[in-house]
What we know:
The complex is a heterotrimer of chains A (180), B (627) and C (497). By secondary structure, chain A is an all-alpha fold.
Amino acid sequence: MYEIIAFYTFSALVIGLFGIVVLSKNALYSMTALAGGMVFISGFFFILDAEFLGVVQIVVYTGAIMALYAFGMMFFDTTRDVKEDIRCKKIFYTLSILSAVLVLIVLSAPIFSANIEAIYPTLEGVGNVQTIGLLLFTKYLVAFELAAIMLLVAMIAGIVLVGKKLDAQSDDLEVAKELK
Amino acid sequence: MNTLLMWIVLSPLLTSIFIGMVYMWGLKYHKLARQWYIVPALISPFVSFVLACFVFWEILTQNNILVYKPYVWLSIENVDIYMGFLGDKLSILMVLFVSFVGWMIHIYASAYMQDDEGEGKFFFYFNLFLASMLLLVLADGPLIMFIGWEGVGVCSYLLIGFYFRVSQNVVAGNKAFIVNRVGDFGFVIGMVTLFFYCTDVGFDYASIKQVVGNIPSFTLAFIGLMLFVGAMGKSAQIPLYVWLPDAMAGPTPVSALIHAATMVTAGVYMVARFNFLYELIPQVGVFIAYVGALSAFFAAIIATKQTDIKKILAYSTMSQLGYMFIAVGLGGYASGVFHVFTHAFFKALLFMGAGAVMTALHHEQDIFKMGGLRQKLPLVHGCMLVATLALCGIPPFAGFFSKDQILLEAFASGHYLLWSIATLTAGLSAYYMFRLFFVVFEGKNYNSSRHIHRLSKTMQVPIFVLAIGSLMAGFIGVPLVLGGDNHIASYLFEWTKKSLHVEHSIEFALMGLSVTVALVGVVLAYVKFYRYDFKKEYVSKGIVYNKFYVDEFYHLLIVLPLQSLSSFIASRLDIQIIDALIMGACRGVIKGGRFVSLLQNANTRFYSLLMMCGVSVFFIYLILVLG
Amino acid sequence: MGDISYLLPLLFVGVGAVVLMLLSYTKSLSISSIAKIALGFLVLAFISNVYYFGELHKVYPYENVFFGMIVSDTYSVYFNSILLVGAIATILIGWDYFRPDRRFTGEFFSLLLFSTFGMMLLVQSAELLSAFIALEIASLSLYVMIGFQTDNIRRVEASYRYLVLGSLSGVLFLFGTALIYASTKTTFLGNIGVELLPQTGKDISLAIGGATLILITFLFKISAFPFQNWTIDVYDGSPLPVSAYMASTFKVAVFAFMLRFVAMDLGYIKDYWDGLLMGVIILTLAYGTFLALAQNNLKRMLASSSIVHTGYLLIAFVSIDIIGESASSSIIYYLIAYFLSAMGAFGLISYISSSDKLRLTYEDFKGFSHVRPYMSAMLSIFMLSLAGLPGTIGFIGKFYIFSGAIEAGYTVLATSAILATFISIYYYFKLIALMYFYPSPILSNVPPLKGLPPIFIGFIAIAVLWGGIGNTFIAFFPSIDFLIDVAKLSHRSLFLQ
Lengths: 180, 627, 497
């Protein structure tokens, strides 16, 4: 029962937040929404009894988005567009109170039902760090290591694309011709 | 030993490629000395000849058949067609004289073409010609033979149109090629039909030999006829002979090569090669013999009125080929091949002599503008006399023995009509040959002051050698009645007609008769043309002189309708109907293209939208399918 | 030779990529010497690969360590050869194009090797996850290669566009993998098929959805109809040798993986796709044809026509389950045919454009044959082959595909493909006509034929003709029959145990 409620809540939230990511014109809002969406996605993992993945999701993506955040602020100077303009204080208060209640419910939930279990656990016993580690370093070792190569390529790509330009003259003729 | 067979073909082939490259090099960069292509060109036929001698000896002593199959050339379903070479008694005999006579002609050509700027090109074609012919002869199956067959056709086209700056020569080349294509068409049909029955065993002669017995006789006759259509084209028989006289447009050594050793003999050889097939269909053989006899007679009549020295010789070739077809048609393959053999010598010699005469007289071809050359060209005169006598069948020259065997076979087989046509033709041959001979060498020459171009030694040596050949070649087939052993018949035992029983007295009578007829022809020519008076302009007209208007007839019947059809298609059908349709469709399609390129608006978001639409469509489809 | 010998080609390319990455740091090495080193590694890889060419085998190297994620069989060897030749060809034809003043640096070659590495891995991977990562390695390197000339806005735009759309398709692949895993509890090729057999009585709709998603990625990468929009813009925006590389090799690699996946696992699921693929093929053919007709730019025309060629390939793809071996081998053969022709065409155009003057539109080629007869001849050969005229390898490839389609009963597809071929003659022959039937050239200062690229392109042209004539004219020389035989062996090697 709880799982169902949780799943639909999280789904709605994730879709809503990612909708903001795509639709918002303000980069800062998009990134904030993205971070929120990522955190909510981790909820799915917890529902599925995959705590490790959930934690990793939060740590990795939140971290990544923090970095994005910082870069976004630096490059676009987005703060200028954001005006903290709270016109209706009632809404603010209502939301605050609701959040507090939510936190209370979340924290006290285990008191009422200590043994929430996944309806569809991915695998019996999986979800703990050991099993994932074993899988990653035995069966999926190749994939895991290939991922490293992929990151290396990404790194080279980043350096190449942003690295300092050579001072040679560009082929203006070519550019002109191809633009035509 | 077996690999030698391949090298017989490869020697001129590689040489021709080498010469071609040297020639191209010479064109592109600086001209090379003529030794660069003369020397290899002269060596390669000799190499082939020597190799052929080795193989010949091997076959003669070991009495076996050599086969060499280097690799699979084609693989059709489960039939592997090998690039195979077959050296048996027949093919090696052909190779022997083809390479030898070819070699002689090469030597002669090296003098004849000396000052021509396209000499390198000439020898490139020449060696290729020889290589194709050798491949044709040595092939172990019809398909490989066909490569040589077509190669010969291409080379003849190239060589006939060698002086391509004169459009007439190009037309002649085209004519040869196109008429030959008509023949090839028949040959291909025959070959394909034959292949239809050979899908299980393979497509070399040995395999075909096994299956011919199973082919229904009607189909077999069809195959035989179709193959013979190919032979008609190559060997210039009625009705596909029209290219041969025009083929004189090429340089004279080319004529010698085409007429003596290569090309025209291919048809005869092919029929002899397929003897196992033609033996089963004697009625087709008789048809072949009649076509041959008619061609022989017809050509001889035309030759009596021609004035061009080379054309006379061309018609005489056609006439002689007719004899060969009489022989092979009646099943006397050995005699046919024997005549091919002797003919190669004296015909090459005749052409060389004609070439020598023409060279001496600065490319004059009309015999009635020559005359009195006996004193000026004594060697040529002597050799030409030998060749003429050989052709006329006067004993003991080469032609006598071979022609006599053919006549004997025609008589013995009971086809007296054939025999009488052939005998009559012998008389005609003697008449027109001596007409040529007397006019050119004995006629009163009023322009004796004219400068005579000196003939080089290189030109005279092969003439002399071949004269000896024309004199001696017949002795390998001296018939038993004359006390000879008829080596050729025992050598080509497999190809001789089995049931040939004629009384010795009749044989003698026939011999005497044919010689008498020939002598009558000679006498007639003597009366009419000996010491021909050049004051009187020779009037050349009449139906015979115009070759019975066959060319014009063909032109009217075949060429003109085709031309008008194609001009109708080109100007009416194509432009007014097809073009309009196509162009209309094109415009529509191009408009469609414009519309489609609107979708290509370089907007990434739009693209991703389209992609997601695509994904949705896919899944809607899946939902529909899965229910 | 142990298991390592099966991995040598991969290792050479991978190690080469890393070495080049490190070398490109030093400024003392010129770009051409780096190109030479890259070439060296590729040739080494090619040699070690060719060692097993045409030998029927299937090996999971180091199975106790790699757990069968990487496979080496006749099939992978065959495709690796194509890919390696493609990479080598790219370097050779771009020999004059990759110059420092065009902002090419050593890293470019490192990326080229990485992308080849990714593609080879894709061909060799026997598992969906590693396939995904391989695909991403290849794509990622390609994105950067396209946008390498960062000062040229068109390059960056193309790179960006490809990145966005490519990632979108990559996500679908991953999602598909997840769905398949959810349904079958495995990601290993071969095991999936066992789980999907109808005998197991499982509900496989999830797996069908997953497989369809992977199919979509595949269709995207080979630019089939609803996912083809990127093709023209990306090809057009890329440097010419990179377009050549992309057009010829990437399609091959992706096809190789998909063919393996479908042949090994999705035999049953494929039936559900039949109608879908029919629609996709017809629309792909129509779209590509129409698009190609509307182009004035040669590069864009080639890009559009590559969509049409995708359509041809998909026809053989559909007929796999009916005439399995011959359809697979005809795909494999057609890939080679297309590979050669496209490589040649792109390569030659890039060589012609490697001087300062660019020839890109049809108009630029007016009367070209009068200036450069040999180049025109080669270009004509490639066009003829792309159009599929007899005497070229393109004809044989098309012949196998069309006859296979008719044999399998897809007459409609064969007809529409023949129609597309028919129309394609228009845009291919337009170039030939322009080159030959105009008296005076507009642009005359074309580089003469010299150096490595023209020789190499000449070889490709000869190969195109050789493949078309189709027989052993020279003794003991491998002919296309040999390639077809190996293609059949390759297909067989997929099912070895």
